[in-house]
Amino acid sequence: MQNFTFHNPTRIVFGENQISQLAKLVPADARILFTYGGGSIKKNGVYDQVVDALKDRPLFEFGGIEPNPRYETLMRAAATVKENHLDFLLAVGGGSVIDGTKFIAAAVEFDGEPWNILAKHAPVTSALPLGCVLTLPATGTESNGNSVITRASTQEKLSFGSPLVYPQFAILDPTTTYSLPPRQMANGVVDAFVHIMEQYLTFPVDAKVQDRFAEGLLLTLIEEGPRSLQEPTNYAVRSNVMWAATMALNGLIGVGVPQDWATHMIGHEITALHGLDHAQTLAIVLPAVMQHQRQQKRDKLIQYGRRVWNLQHADEDQLIDAAIAATRQFFEQMGTPTRLRDYQIETASIDKLVAQLQSHNLLKLGEHGDITLDASRRILELAA
Ligand code: NZQ
Ligand code: ZN
Description:
The chain has about 375 residues and is α/β, with parallel strands linked by helices. The protein folds into two domains: about 10-175, 3-Layer(aba) Sandwich (Rossmann fold); about 180-380, Dehydroquinate synthase-like - alpha domain (Dehydroquinate synthase-like, alpha domain, Up-down Bundle), CATH 1.20.1090. Helix content is about 45%, strand content about 10%. It contains 15 helices and eight strands. α10 packs across α14 (about 350-360) and α14 (about 350-360) packs antiparallel against α15. The longest helix has 23 residues, at about 210-230. The chain is globular. It starts with 10 loop residues before the first strand and ends with a helix. The structure holds 5,6-dihydroxy-NADP and zinc ion. The site of 5,6-dihydroxy-NADP has 35 residues, from α2, α5, β6 and α7.
């Protein structure tokens, strides 16, 4: 196991009716900007619960944060914060609203052009405090310091991370997910699954705690993911998926182990150029990464096949083939297609995707830094 420090400052408040806890969780003297997305929270009652919990408090609203949240929109929110002297951000929604709110928190306090936080990794030295109510289990952003932002004008999707943008608290009420359309629920399960794989499917460092946690989370998603589609109001099932998605990317399983993230980096370019949902891009890229990197990942692929899919093949290469096929089949079972062609993306687009990776300096991806531009091209060809 590699050396590490681990600190996750986000207070998780989990369970039905817990949005009412906002009154206690938001600092008493806060001047609040309440951020949300395209309106799902107005239909499922979450908006009313938030407003009710914070009645009599200085509460300003900023709605309309898009999926794959846009820099242009977030800069307008930052202006609202400054104009009204607000000092606390409350994000209510999925990963896009929470990521977007993290960027607002950093942008408001940033000296200079805030795009540089993303494009040049300019250090974030100060950020407004934020909290969140999560309505879509998927990204893990509710208890991590990461944020992914899209600039529409240049078709770029870039990320930043800072300990200063961890939410102070995250309310996770599984009943808020009942209104999710099946495609978004599937996206959440696939995204969380791939987060675990990015931290697990590398090479062994004898990190038994991390491996067993990761395998337990993968099995939870394999068991509960399809059920979450079949029984959308099953509280236990939604609870298990929600907690698994948080645990997948709150830092715990990634400490002391090598990490990959090539699937995410390549996937972000597909979203930026073609507008696919984040998880759809992962379902396309991960099976191809597993195939392309099968020698480098050989030991973990075998472990994964045996422990997670209970595969018994004597021949190790057959076992690896079956593990990759089972992964693809799981995504398909969730209703998330796994080939570029399923989304009408032609092989002719691969050149452009590779050029975007190059322009973002993503030349050495993966846990060994051996996924060069040529390897990324080959991965995209395998995903065609
Ligand atoms: O905008 P509204 O109207 O709220 O509708 C949203 C949106 O259309 C809807 N939705 C959310 N909760 C709902 C609901 N509809 C009905 N009922 C509910 N309870 O779902 C749609 C998608 O929402 P979005 O927030 O975009 O989805 P998700 O949570 O999957 O977030 C995706 C974003 O997170 C980034 C992705 O790149 C993408 O931009 N990621 C962030 C990460 C992080 N910060 O650590 C890691 C991830 O790998 C990922 O990259
Ligand atoms: Zn993801």
